[in-house]
Design brief:
203 residues, alpha/beta, Rossmann fold, five-stranded parallel β-sheet, two-stranded antiparallel sheet, 6 helices, 7 strands, globular
Length: 203
């Protein structure tokens, strides 16, 4: 079994999502001693955002590529190969301005490749990366899950469920700690709730 551990918080040692992804991976390994873990810190080593050069992987086979496009293609190839090789993906995804960190979005843009992770058919798009388990470690300064208005504002968990579902992954589990910036008592409750989510995710 191969597990891909991804962090995206820019807060380093002060990051709750990083603490929780580390805890998630450690507990997964304890239950699966033979698991092979690879680590990707997209905050520290973010792929560039899509541009005319990094879109090279979408050009027709045999297209002449510049040196820059070839280098960008190599980055995309390494990331999509790593993703496809994983059986389990643990993603640390803090909520930044109602969505995910732009560095994590840049990674997603590199792995969403026609013919590799999805394809178009006469019945619509079809995911090609099914059979994986994704555990999203979701952290939030405020509370969004407890009201209709809050749910409408967040484009973090909802986006990740959508994009992984588009790639054919139906087993997406959420470990959530929200209200982290609402005072010590609320933060303690949030971490306790995340512990329960983690136990359920690993059951």
């Amino acid at each position: 079994m191969k597990l891909l551990h991804i962090d995206s918080s820019v807060l380093g040692d002060n990051s709750v999502s990083r603490q929780l992804t580390a805890q998630t991976v450690a507990q997964w390994k304890a239950r699966n001693p033979g698991a092979e873990v690879s680590y990707l810190d997209v905050a520290a080593q973010a792929p560039s955002h899509l541009n005319a050069d990094s879109l090279g992987f979408r050009l027709p086979a045999g297209s002449a590529l510049t040196e820059v496009q070839q280098r960008e293609n190599a980055v995309s190839e390494a990331l999509v190969t790593q993703f496809l090789a994983a059986d389990v993906i643990v993603v640390g995804a803090p909520l930044y301005n109602f969505s995910i960190p732009s560095q994590l979005k840049a990674w997603i843009d590199r792995i969403c490749q026609v013919g590799r992770t999805f394809k178009y058919t006469d019945k619509g798009p079809q995911g090609l990366a099914g059979g994986k388990t994704v555990i999203v470690v979701s952290t939030r300064g405020g509370k969004y899950s407890i009201s209709e208005a809050g749910n409408a504002m967040e484009h973090q968990e909802s986006y990740l469920k959508t994009v992984f579902g588009f790639l054919g992954i139906t087993d997406v589990r959420i470990v959530r700690a929200e209200g982290l910036n609402m005072g010590p008592e609320v933060k303690a409750e949030a971490l306790g709730s995340a512990e329960k989510d983690l136990a359920a995710a690993l059951a």
